[in-house]
Amino acid sequence: MALLADPDAPTEIAQRMAQMLPDRLAERSGHGRRFDVEVVSEPFTAGTEDLSTLTRRIMDRGSEGNWDIVVALTDLPLHSHGRKLVVDLSHEHGLALLSLPTLGGFRLQTRARQAVEEAVLSLAGLQGTGAEGPPGSQPLRGPFIGRLAPIHPGQIGEEEIADLRYVVSGPRGYLRVLGGMVRANRPWRLVPGLSKALAAALATGAVATVNSTIWNLATSLSTPRLVIAMVGSVALMIGWLIVDANLWHRTDEVSPEARKRAALYNASTIVTVGIGVIVCYVGLMLINLVCALFILNDRVFASTTRTPPHVTEYWTLAWFVAPVATVGGALGSGLESDEAIRAAAYSKREQERRRVLQDEHGD
Length: 363
What we know:
Layout: E1 2-5, H1 9-29, E2 38-41, H2 51-65, E3 70-74, E4 79-80, E5 83-90, E6 95-99, H3 108-129, E7 151-153, E8 164-168, H4 170-185, H5 190-193, H6 195-209, H7 212-220, H8 223-244, H9 256-295, H10 298-305, H11 311-332, H12 338-345, H13 348-362
Parallel strand pairs: 1-2, 1-3, 3-6
Antiparallel strand pairs: 4-5, 5-6, 5-8, 7-8
Helix pairs in contact: 1-3, 4-9, 6-9, 6-11, 7-11, 8-9, 8-11, 9-11
C-alpha cells in the first residue's frame, strides 16, 4: 500500500505514521496478513479542489505504482455537497482520500493514524475477504468517528467513484476544521518569517525604552488604557499584515456555499496571523523588560518620573513600550514582500491554492 501525501506537513505526518503502521495493521487485521507501506510525496492536489478530479489522480497514481491500496493525505480543506469532507473511500478501486484539517488542530498525528488504519482495514477487508453486501456498506469504526466527534456519513452522488464518505458539519465541525486549518498553516512560523518587521519592532522598542517621555507616560497610564493600547496595537498589526500582503480571500461566486467557504478561509487567516502577532507581542514585552532592567539607571528614572523604580514600574514600562514597538513592526512589515508574508502565514498547499485563484482573477 502507499501513503500518497501532499508536500510539507502531510508528508511529515505520513512518514511518522509509516514507521508504526505496518505492525499495527498486521496486528489488527489478523489472518497472517502483512502490510508494506510506502510514502510517496507529491502535490496531487495541485490546481484543483474538485473531488472527482482528485480521485481520478489518485486512481492513476495507484495504477502506476501497482499498489493494492492508496491512501491520500492533504492539508487542504475539501468540500462535498456543502459539507467539509473528512474521508472518501472507494472499495472497488482500493483508495481513500483524507482531508487532515477536518481532524482538528490537536492530536493530529494520532487522529490521522487512527483514520488511516480504519480506512485501510475497511478497504483490505472488503477486498480480501469478500464480505457480504455492497462496497461501502460496512461503516468505519474507531475513536476518530466516535460519539463525541462531529463526524457522520455524507452524501455521495451517483456518478462519483467513492462508495463511502464521512463529513463534518455544525458549529463543532466548523471549529474543528478551523483549528485544523490553523494548525496546517503553522502560525508559529510567522515569527521568524517576518525578520524585517521584527527588526523594526526591536529597534523601535529599544529607542522607546530609553526615552524619558515614554517613562512618564508609562507611569501615568492606568491599567485599562494599557490594555486598550495593547489590544489596539495587536489588532493594527493583524489588519496591516492581512491588507498589505493581500491575505483576504475574495470570491466572485454568489452561492451560500462559496461565501461560507470564503468566510472559513478568512477566519483561518485571522486566527493564524493573530497567533503569530500575539507571540511576537509577548516576545517584545519580555525583551523590553530585560532591556529596561539592565539599561535604565534607577536614579535617573526616579528623578524623571518621581516614582521609585520597582519591578512593577519596569513591567509597566515594558508593557507600554510593546504596543509602540508593535506599531513600528507594522510599518517595518511594509519592507517584506507579499510572497514572504504568505510563505510565513500559509502552508504550501494553501499558498498554491491562493496563487491559482489570483491567476484566475488576473485572467
